[in-house]
Design brief:
The protein is α/β, with parallel strands linked by helices. The chain has a domain at 31-272: 3-Layer(aba) Sandwich (Aspartate Aminotransferase, domain 2). The chain contains 14 helices and 12 strands. The strands form 3 sheets. Strands 1-9-8-5-4-2-3 form a 7-stranded mixed β-sheet, with helices on both faces. Helix 1 (31-43) runs antiparallel to helix 9 (263-294), helix 3 (85-95) crosses helix 7 and helix 9 (263-294) packs across helix 14 (410-425). It is globular. Bound molecules: pyridoxal-5'-phosphate. The site of pyridoxal-5'-phosphate has 15 residues, from helix 3 and helix 4.
């Protein structure tokens, strides 16, 4: 026999959850995407690429139109599609000519690909700490990590807003470094009015299933530099087989891969791109509503928006002050999950604490590229304590919710706040 769940008792202790049914998965595919995909499937071809030096080197019609539309939307000269942001990040590293003997400074609070893209070309990721307000890379920490090997900074625009480019751009200029903007999470956000992803040398966007607009998988690299664009295209499409015939390119051999986008994905991406502004507005409106409610709760800090930035709230981050709140972040996350709202426990583990870096095994047992070799005599530090702000966020302070994602509405946001208030009102009952 079912026992009746009590109101006013925390769901974690057997009470009735605030949100009885789990939130439905976010899936924004409509008739237009279906029509676009059907058009390509009916008419073909499914891919217009060939790894040869002719017109097919640049991909099929849908790919090219998508790239042109993307470049127009973000006011940039070149957009090069890829089959993921991970491969586009690798394309960025190749485009900049970064390889063995080079270091790239990356934040440790990001998806692992921001760092592994560097490793993929035999260069060494060096981790700098983050700003505790924006969770993006901290320029002061970056400056301390610059060595004679440093070639670039990977500035990740995390969770919907930009890194501190007012400080990063002059720093890069002073030390002759390139900046790659990993903008996988922040399309449509701006820095001083400029679209994020277009502020520095190269920007990268993602179309994976968790992103603001998505095609399951997919990525785009953008740049105003024609040489970077061409090198990215060579990396995307078997440059080794193409470049001998490409006499307009005179920078020597290049080692490419198959990072090409299909026509089906490009057709879907074109429709999704048209939805971007609508989805951004919806998310930001719900986030503003949530911020208004949470700002009154001691111990919870809603997203900080740097005055140079607009924030598109890819994910709604909350910082927890355990002392002020009277219980721990993990207790909050557990109690909220029982009330029907899943929240993250600290986003990702700081990347340098992953086994790959702890054991320094990227290419079998060689120790390459971390250990001393013909090109490199640096000393990357992957020890615990290396980036104390990130570790504190991960262990104690950081959480996020996806309750502001479209198609959720003010109702779900209000229920989220109600659940939060209920948990806080019953904090003495948390174990
Ligand atoms: C900041 C960041 N960079 C890179 C990636 C990699 O994107 P993709 O899955 O398209 O390869 C992600 C994906 O989660 C991301 O969030």
């Amino acid at each position: 026999m079912k026992t009746k769940r009590k109101r006013g008792v925390l769901a974690i202790n057997g009470g009735k959850p605030v949100m009885a049914k789990p939130l439905p998965a976010v899936h924004i595919m409509d008739k237009e995407e279906i029509a676009a995909v059907s058009r390509v499937i009916r008419g073909g071809p499914l891919s217009g690429f060939a790894g040869v030096h002719n017109d097919r080197f640049f991909g099929g019609k849908e790919v090219r139109v998508f790239e042109a539309e993307f470049a127009k939307k973000f006011k940039i000269k070149h957009a090069v599609s890829f089959n993921s942001a991970t491969t586009a990040l690798h394309g960025a590293i190749v485009a900049l000519g970064i390889g063995p003997g080079d270091e790239v400074i990356v934040p440790p609070y990001t998806m692992s690909a921001s760092a592994t893209a560097v490793l993929m070309n035999g260069a060494v990721p060096i981790f700098a700490d983050i700003d505790e307000r924006t969770f993006c890379i901290d320029p002061k920490s970056v400056e301390k990590r610059i060595t004679k090997y440093t070639k670039a900074i990977m500035a990740v625009n995390l969770l919907g807003q930009g890194a501190d480019f007012a400080k990063l751009l002059p720093l890069a200029k002073k030390h002759n470094l390139a900046i790659i903007e990993d903008n996988a999470q922040s399309p449509d956000a701006t820095w001083r009015g400029k679209p994020l992803g277009t502020v520095c040398d190269i920007g990268v966007f993602s179309l994976n299933v968790h992103k603001a607009i998505q095609t399951g998988e997919g990525g785009i690299l953008v740049t105003n530099n024609p040489t970077y664009a061409l090198r990215a295209q060579l990396c995307r499409n078997h440059g080794e087989a193409v470049v001998d015939d490409m006499h307009e390119y005179d920078s020597g051999p290049i080692f490419g891969s198959n990072y090409r986008m299909t026509e089906v994905v490009a057709a879907m991406a074109r429709v999704q791109l048209r939805r971007l502004d609508f989805l951004t507005k919806k998310r930001v409106a719900l986030a503003n509503r949530l911020t208004k409610a949470l700002a009154k709760i001691p111990g919870l800090t809603p997203p900080f928006v740097h005055p140079d930035n607009t924030h598109v709230i890819h994910r709604y981050a909350i910082r927890v002050d355990e002392k002020k709140l009277g219980f721990s972040r993990d207790q909050l996350v557990e109690a909220m999950a029982a009330e029907g709202f899943s929240m993250s426990r600290g986003y990702v583990k700081p990347i340098y604490l992953l086994r790959l870096f702890q054991e320094r095994k990227a290419f079998n047992r060689t120790g390459f590229p971390f250990e001393k070799n013909t090109y490199y005599n640096g000393s990357p530090d992957y020890s615990k304590g290396n980036c104390p702000v990130v570790e504190r966020m991960f262990e104690k302070e950081f959480t996020f919710t996806d309750v502001c994602q479209y198609p959720y509405t003010a109702r779900e946001v209000d229920l989220f706040v109600a659940a939060m208030k209920k948990v806080i009102a019953h904090k003495d009952e948390l174990s």
